[in-house]
Specification:
Layout (H helix, E strand, L loop, with lengths): L1 E13 L9 E16 L6 E3 L3 H17 L7 E6 L9 H16 L6 H16 L5 H8 L2 E5 L4 E4 L7 E5 L6 H12 L2 H27 L2 H18 L4 H12 L4 E5 L6 E5 L5 H10 L3 E3 L9 E3 L1
Parallel strand pairs: 3-4
Antiparallel strand pairs: 1-2, 1-11, 2-4, 2-5, 5-6, 7-9, 7-10, 8-9
Helix pairs in contact: 1-2, 1-3, 2-3, 2-4, 3-4, 6-7, 8-9
The structure holds (3R)-3-hydroxy-3-methyl-5-(phosphonooxy)pentanoic acid (PMV).
The site of (3R)-3-hydroxy-3-methyl-5-(phosphonooxy)pentanoic acid has 16 residues, from α4 and α5.
């Protein structure tokens, strides 16, 4: 038997870093998907995944799933899709969630979304050692979510698709190094106080952003994005390139902009009136950024025909 499953990538809208320390964040699933085909076939497990990082996540997901359900049939997993591991849109979280879902269908072990999330989070922690799991929640549930670390809160935020513009900085970010770097600063009392003051402000921004999303007040939402970015700069996780892209987007008429994710590279996002989209995109390109076309609010993990 062969089953095919897909899961979406993600974009962090508000609240990165602070989310690891118990504050809420807002994440949205994007319409770039990762596909996993699972077959019960062969003499030993075989993983055909062109992307090296994804391979690790698939292997660990298979091991965990087989252990949990006491399965010793070999499987062949093949991954493909339009989610490159290079831009930071969540290919490893999507592949983990999709692999677990595919195996559950293949072996008729029904798993709820919560169970898929929890198993995926175990895989993620085993491989990366750090992380809130926000990306796995987006891959599992889809839509836009209010999320607190390790899934203490996973709550849909009902919104219309946003006029988002995504710019890739050209550099792959190393999320776990950045997260661990911040954690090591938190060990010292003085820096800890400062960092938690910033987290408090980020937490407030997330709550206000939720309100602006509810009210469809995109001018205010943009302002909150820019404020969130300035706080991430204070945390020391932005880069000159991301700052340039963010500033260019704002100067070209965006309501606001910020880096999205751990920082150190990957993507920035901007929200802009439709009439200004081209100016904002051109201004991001003029700083050397690459526009990635996405729609947000994508559907979570699903079985494909
Ligand atoms: O770099 P990304 O896109 O995986 O985002 C990381 C977001 C953090 O809050 C820094 C880490 C996390 O797991 O929540």
């Amino acid at each position: 038997m062969k089953v095919k499953v897909s899961a979406p990538g993600k974009l962090m809208l508000f609240g990165e870093h602070a989310v690891i320390y118990g504050y809420p964040c807002i994440v949205t699933a994007v319409d770039k998907r990762l596909f996993v085909e699972a077959e019960d076939l062969g003499l030993k497990d075989e993983i055909l995944s062109p992307q090296v990082t994804e391979n690790k996540f698939v292997r660990e997901s298979v091991t965990l799933f087989k252990k949990k359900f006491k399965i010793n049939v070999p499987v062949r997993i093949t991954t493909f899709g339009d989610l490159s591991q290079n831009v930071g849109l969540g290919s490893s979280s999507a592949v983990t969630v999709a692999t677990i879902k595919a195996l559950s269908v293949l072996f008729s072990e029904e798993l709820s979304k919560r169970e898929i999330f929890d198993m995926s989070y175990r895989v993620d922690l085993k491989i990366q050692g750090v992380g809130s799991g926000f990306d796995l929640a987006a891959a599992t549930y889809g839509g836009t979510l209010n999320f607190v670390s390790s899934g203490k809160v996973i709550e849909p935020v009902k919104i219309k698709p946003l006029q988002l513009i995504v710019g890739y900085s050209g550099k792959k970010a190393d999320t776990s190094t950045i997260v661990k770097g911040l954690r090591s600063k938190i060990k010292y009392k003085k820096t800890k106080e400062l960092i938690f003051k910033i987290f408090d402000q980020i937490g407030k921004i997330v709550r206000l952003a939720k309100k602006s999303l509810d009210q469809e007040d995109y001018t205010e939402l943009g302002k909150l994005m820019t404020r969130n970015h300035r706080l991430l700069q204070k945390l020391g996780v932005s880069t000159p390139k991301l700052d340039q892209m963010v500033n260019a987007a704002i100067e070209a008429g965006a309501y606001g902009a910020k880096l999205s994710g751990a920082g150190g590279g990957d993507c920035m996002i901007a929200i802009a009136p439709e009439a200004k989209r081209h100016y904002v995109e051109d201004s991001i390109i003029s700083t050397g950024g690459e526009i990635i076309s996405i729609k947000n609010n994508a559907q979570g993990v699903k079985l494909e025909k």
